[in-house]
Amino acid sequence: MTDLDLQAAAKEHLWLHFTRMSTYGSSDVPVIVRGEGAYVYDDKGKRYLDGLAGLFVSMVGHSRTKIAEAAAKQASELAYFPLWSYAHPSAIKLADRIAGLAPGDLNRVFFTTSGSEAVESAWKLAKAYFKLKGEPTRYKVISRDIAYHGTSMGALAVTGLSAIKPDFEPLPPGGVRVPNTNFYRAPDFISQDLEQFGIWAADEIERAILREGPESVAAVFLEPVQNSGGCFPPPPGYFQRVREICDRYGVLLVSDEVICAFGRLGYYFGSERYGYQPDIITFAKGVTSGYSPLGGMVVRDEIMEPFLSGPATFLHGITFAGHPVSTAVALANLDIFEEEDLLGNVRKNEDAFRATLEKLTDLPIVGEVRGAGYFYGIELVKDKDTKETFDDDESERLLRGYLSHALFDAGLICRADDRGDPVIQLAPPLICTQEHFDEIEQVLRATLTEAWKRI
Ligand SMILES: Cc1ncc(COP(=O)(O)O)c(C=O)c1O
Question: What is the pLDDT at residue 419?
Fold first, then answer.
């Protein structure tokens, strides 16, 4: 197929996700054809720094033949067998490895193929667990404003982005929202002290549990660092207080680490970085660095326990979950993490990454740089002193009308997002070093300077 054919066929037959397809009536569909390390190349040979690791996925970077070879070996040995009543060696080995890496007694791994399925599975497990335990009225889930937890019906009900829900309502009942930990936009009465703000935000979870009735609440779903809205780290003590609240009311704490696990924050699990013990961790993305799809949840012994006797069964499964090729790929991916000490690379360089991005705060449009590890959000504002944000029209012109294209044209793949206030998001592969940070800063500086002139 020639390039022209690819372009025409994409326009005619391919449906892009979360994309205004009308845009491609008048412009080309970007076609990425190969990757190498921290870079990808389009069909015209142009190079881009993959500043978002695809979609928070490519932890070890592109073109790792070692992983590709592990996939080929597994496919020729055993391409497929389900985990429905059977096991296969690479799923067993990966479950054992993940249980060894996960904090505390999170020892049981249930695989899925994606993050949405992981979230969906965790909610279903929480409901089924409480039914087995004799608390059948617990079904509600608490999650935070603007937090993204996936798109399948259950995961969408957990998601806190109101704008992406109406087209699909009614959703499963039971999703309850609480404030997130965006300190930059903290309510006035609690905006002076980060720790106090964290206590307030955690206590909002307790208030929600009491409002709903503790006997009706099954779980709280939280990301270690909330992605949507632009990287909200937890204030000091936040998760410790949330853990206490969950224990007080017998509610499960689910750490949704679809983005934050496998090195994004410099640890295998984000909960490890912030020192809290979840009851369930959901993961996906980085577990394979995207060389094959895989997700899952890792569950505490106590949650597994009622399913270990008599006829008790978790009546839930997915044909391709724990696929042999994907689990073999994950093992090879984790080998690279160890051989190259990628967690060490993130921990060693995260301050330099942050400092490089913080140079941008001399621009009038940059309100705040926030995040942790290799995971940052840059909030764009109209007025730095008052923190005034852009109105819907300005945001539309700024992000969709200019920044998204301009950043891509300048050779940087990142996300310009206004699901909360307008932000630029960065989550590069974990192999990146200062030269990549500098490249990101230079492209952002030029593009944001131009954006400010156009507003
Ligand atoms: C925190 C979180 N949970 C769940 C999901 C859904 O994952 P997937 O797109 O693999 O279904 C995502 C996707 O970005 C996510 O960031």
Answer: 84
* Residue of minimum CA distance from atom 13 in ligand 1: 150
Say which residues have a Cβ less than 8 Å from residue 15's Cβ, sequence separation at least 6. 21
Which amino acid would we find at residue 295? G
pLDDT value for 1: 46
- Given the CA of residue 256, which atom of ligand 1 is nearest to it? 1
Ligand 1 geometric centre to CA of 258 (Å): 6
Helix (H) or strand (E) holding 154: helix 153-158
pLDDT score recorded for residue 9 = 95
Q: Which residues of 216-225 are buried (b: 16+ CB within 10 A; e: fewer)?
A: ebbbbbbbbb
What Cα–Cα distance (Å) separates residue 431 from each residue in 61, 266, 289, 332? 7, 12, 12, 16
Testing ligand 1's pocket by substitution, the residue of 285, 292, 375 carrying the most ligand atoms inside 8 A of its CB is 285
Place of tokens 């190259």: 340
- Pick the closest to residue 282 from 220, 230, 326 (CA basis): 220
The pLDDT of residue 455: 83
CA of 363 to the centre of ligand 1 (A): 32
For residue 322, the CA-to-ligand 1 centroid distance in Å is 17
Question: Please, are residues 437 and 431 in contact by the beta-carbon 8 Å criterion?
Answer: no
Q: Ligand 1 within 6 A of 114 CB?
A: yes
Q: Which of 404, 397, 396, 452 is nearest to 52 (CA)?
A: 404
The beta-strand segments (E) located in 9-149 are 32-36, 39-42, 47-50, 106-112, 140-144
Within 10 A of 64 (CB to CB), how many other CB atoms are there? 20
User: What are the start-end ranges of the E strands in 301-430?
Assistant: 366-372, 375-380, 412-413, 415-417, 423-426
For residue 258, give both structure tokens.
């679809």
Ligand 1 proximity of 121 Cβ (cutoff 6 Å): no
Q: Which atom of ligand 1 is nearest to the CA of 116?
A: 11
Residue segments in the chain with a per-residue pLDDT below the cut of 50? 1
If 0-12 CB within 10 Å is exposed, 13-18 middle and 19+ buried, where does residue 192 land? exposed
- For the record, the structure tokens of 26 come out as 């008048």
